[in-house]
Design a protein that fits this description.
Layout: H1 3-12, H2 15-21, E1 23-26, H3 28-31, H4 46-51, E2 54-56, H5 61-74, E3 82-85, H6 98-104, H7 107-123, E4 128-129, H8 153-168, E5 179-185, H9 204-211, H10 213-220, E6 225-228, E7 232-233, E8 236-237, H11 242-252, E9 258-260, H12 268-272, H13 278-288, E10 293-294, H14 298-308, H15 314-330, H16 343-349, H17 353-366, E11 368-372, E12 383-387, H18 412-420, E13 426-430, E14 440-441, E15 446-447, H19 452-469, E16 472-478, H20 497-509, E17 513-519, H21 526-531, E18 534-539, H22 545-553, E19 619-621, E20 625-626, E21 637-645, E22 651-661, E23 672-681, E24 686-693, E25 700-701, E26 707-708, E27 713-719, E28 727-731
Parallel strand pairs: 1-2, 1-10, 2-3, 3-4, 4-5, 5-6, 6-9, 12-13, 12-16, 16-17, 17-18
Antiparallel strand pairs: 7-8, 11-18, 14-15, 19-21, 20-21, 21-24, 22-23, 22-27, 25-26, 27-28
This protein binds alpha-D-glucopyranose.
């Protein structure tokens, strides 16, 4: 429909019809079959059911088409319904969780994964996905770190932009794509004490330098929606934060798409004590420019009265409705309310060999090898025992893969059986223990198991027998998939007691021990590290988890993943991140350190730093060479290193560029990631890797409250993780 026609449509709509375009109903409202309009009878007023602008949580071509048909026929202007869904890292083919995508340091992996998700979801009738999350995360206690690509704004920005491109493609009328929604605006990951939905206290310069950039990258990539966050920012809930939404998001960032609240976030301003009534909450949200009220009555019960009383200008309503109509129009819904969704198409594009191959490649690149001694990996022995609750576990997804069927997941056991049957190697499997201890609270349900102790005793006996038989043991341990995600904050970054006990008993029996940890957040792993010859992290790997993991353990591929979040020695170090300040009393690397910034009982640094990960080979790196040591506005500096694979196997290394501003009008982080490149280097070969350093990379939010570069000295570091000291100085 032409823009002028949209304007004409808006002008024809009644106030009620306009307001209800801003209302999103939960999918359950539409689930049951019903008379009249194909909508279920419920306590939601009949006119809302008939005129709401969107719904979330429904998918399936036939179901969507049935509801849409009834809906469009019954709407006075035949305006189609928008169907939205959380397709976070997989619809049917589930990719590694976003934290795992961050570990790949490969935006192309994220883009291709998003493309697969969009194709599968769109065929199922989905128009909008509530993804990607752009939240910077530094606190592993917060369970939603699983949905972020990590602690670094630069890496997050590249990954978020890539996912937006993958979801949306170049033309939203292309029915292999869906509109994407960058969330949760803003700074949701900074929740105090790592507790979900909590207050966020941030200085403006930390907000602008660290927390906002990734959202901006997503918006610049063309994201059509943004979602408000549950948290307050310095005491103001995002959904009523006019400065954040009207000034930062719309004016500064230039976002002109649809702003949707998070689930009930408008109404929750009453709980926060910011609004005394839903009417007040609706007023704050409209003034902040929130276009869609997700799943509460705040808008439909109050906007008409607010406008008629003159407290809300009618123009705010019209601009919000126009943004919703434009989104529907750009999706081609007025021309085809079904957007080509069909069961037949869904069958053709879902869980295809190609989709699985993309997922499997993503798994391989997401695996992070933290230790590998005594040639434990790759597996080369004749008798291997796979032991642990993850050996034959299908739930390799995260709790935010809500539309997949986990029966389609390839388990480690299935993949290992298939791979090793082609070799002389014998494999045996044992569960070893249940994944959880009794009465573990998993948020929406609590895990209890009758006579768990007796059960674990039986499982342990079998496991020790198998461990005794084997030349090498692969322990497959981890968090339960429901222990990360929304409302899953924890103060202990550990595995269950049963798994810990299994680890210690099996380690006594193992001739050689590989520990694989499947998780959705950084964990405290000291005891596992010390007793394992090799340890590898798999961030919720998804549908092709078993295959990708065996591809790496078998040596078919060399691991290349890098940590997207610091792994601490202790939860007491949280929040912890590499781009920290040195302080006025830095703790010396050696020697005494009283009256310096330190803990009496723990190092300052993490156990494993951001950007760390081993390959199966060995790499050396030359000193950093700069083609000049003065950077000017119009002439950047080229920084080059030579990277040599000195090992015996071909491998991929992720070369990382960090820059430190040695002095600024505000204190500056000891390092900031400004570039990364994956390089495949054959055994014995070497390759030059160059990065272009330009003035814009040096900008920060100065004492003048502006993003600008200040003159002075800088150091460019290039290495294989954020601990690198391989640097060269330059000036600007
Ligand atoms: C949830 C989440 C958000 C999700 C939305 C819709 O509460 O915070 O990420 O997209 O509701 O399910």
């Amino acid at each position: 429909m032409k823009k002028t026609d949209l304007k004409a449509l808006l002008d024809e709509m009644t106030m009620e019809e306009k307001i209800l375009q801003l209302v999103q109903l939960p999918g359950a409202t539409f689930e049951e079959d019903a008379a009249v309009t194909g909508l279920s009878d419920s306590q939601i007023p009949e006119n809302v059911l008939r005129l709401a602008g969107s719904t979330l949580g429904i998918f399936g071509a036939e179901k969507v088409k049935k509801i849409q048909k009834a809906y469009v026929e019954n709407h006075p202007h035949h305006i189609p319904l928008l169907f939205m869904l959380d397709v976070i890292h997989g619809h049917k083919t589930v990719m590694p969780c976003p934290l795992g995508l961050g570990a790949t340091f490969d935006p192309e992996v994220a883009r291709k994964g998003a493309e697969v998700q969009a194709k599968e979801a769109s065929a199922d009738g989905v128009h909008v996905t509530f993804s990607p999350m752009g939240d910077l995360v530094r606190d592993a206690r917060w369970g939603r770190v699983v949905e972020s690509t990590g602690e670094d704004k630069f890496l997050n920005g590249k990954m978020v932009a890539a996912m937006v491109k993958g979801y949306q493609g170049d033309d939203l009328t292309d029915t292999d794509h869906v509109a994407s929604c960058v969330k949760h605006f803003a700074a949701y990951g900074g929740a105090e004490a790592g507790r979900d939905y909590n207050n966020v206290e941030l200085s403006e310069h930390t907000l602008r330098e660290q927390y906002l950039p990734a959202y901006k990258e997503g918006i610049d990539a063309g994201a059509r929606l943004v979602m408000t966050s549950f948290n307050t920012l310095n005491g103001i809930p995002s959904s009523g934060n006019k400065w954040l939404m009207r000034y930062i998001l719309r004016k500064e960032m230039g976002f002109d798409g649809v702003l949707i609240s998070d689930w009930a976030a408008i109404a929750e301003m009453k709980n926060w004590g910011i609004a005394e009534s839903l009417r007040e909450a609706a007023k704050l949200a409209m003034e902040a420019g929130v276009d869609i009220d997700m799943c509460t009555e705040s808008y439909y019960a109050n906007l008409e009265d607010l406008i008629n009383s003159g407290e809300i200008d009618k123009s705010l309503l019209d601009e919000a409705v126009m943004r919703v109509l434009e989104l529907k129009n750009d999706l081609g819904l007025f021309e085809d309310p079904y957007r080509g969704a069909s069961e037949e198409k869904a069958k053709k594009v879902t869980l295809t060999a190609e989709n699985r191959a993309i997922a499997r490649d993503a798994v391989r690149k997401s695996l992070v090898l933290l230790k590998n001694e005594r040639e434990a990996l790759p597996l080369k022995v004749k008798r291997i025992a796979f032991i642990g609750p993850y050996v034959d576990e299908k739930e390799l997804r995260s709790s935010w893969a809500i539309s997949c069927d986990s029966k389609t997941t390839v388990t480690i056991q299935e993949a290992a059986t298939k791979f090793f049957e082609k070799t002389e190697c014998k494999v045996k499997f044992a569960k070893g223990c249940e994944m959880l201890d009794n009465n573990t609270d998993l948020g929406f349900n609590t895990f209890t198991q009758e006579n768990l102790e007796a059960e674990n005793k039986k499982l342990m006996a079998k496991a020790l027998e198998v461990a005794d038989w084997a030349d090498e043991v692969v322990l497959c341990l981890g968090e339960h998939f429901a222990q990360t995600g929304e409302s899953t904050s924890k103060v202990n970054l550990t595995l269950s007691d049963a798994q810990r006990k299994l680890f210690h008993e099996v380690s006594k029996k193992s001739k050689k021990l590989v520990t694989l940890i499947i998780c959705g957040r950084p964990l405290v792993l000291d005891e596992y590290i010390e007793k394992s010859d090799a340890l590898m992290i798999s961030f919720r790997p998804g549908t092709e988890g078993g295959n990708g993991i065996i591809d790496i353990l078998s040596g078919e591929y060399s691991p290349s993943g890098k940590l997207p979040m610091s792994f601490p020695y202790s939860v007491g170090q949280e929040p912890i991140h590499y781009d920290r300040y040195i302080t006025g009393r830095p703790k010396p690397a050696e020697g005494t350190s009283i009256f310096t910034t330190r803990y009496l009982d723990c190092p300052n640094e993490p156990r494993f730093c951001f950007g760390y990960g081993l390959t199966y080979s060995k790499f050396e790196i030359s000193n950093v060479k700069l083609d000049k040591d003065i950077l000017t506005d119009d002439a950047g500096i080229t920084a080059t290193v030579n990277v040599k694979n000195t090992g015996r196997v071909d491998a991929t290394q992720v070369v990382q560029l960090y820059i430190r501003d040695m002095a600024g009008s505000r204190v500056r982080p000891i390092k900031e990631l400004k570039g990364f490149e994956r390089v495949e280097v054959k055994a014995g070969d070497s390759v030059d890797v160059s990065f272009k350093i330009t003035e814009d990379m040096l900008r920060f939010f100065t004492i003048k409250n502006a993003f600008e570069t200040e003159h002075g000295k800088f150091t460019a570091y290039i290495g294989f993780d954020s601990d690198t000291e391989n640097g060269a100085e330059f000036s600007y």
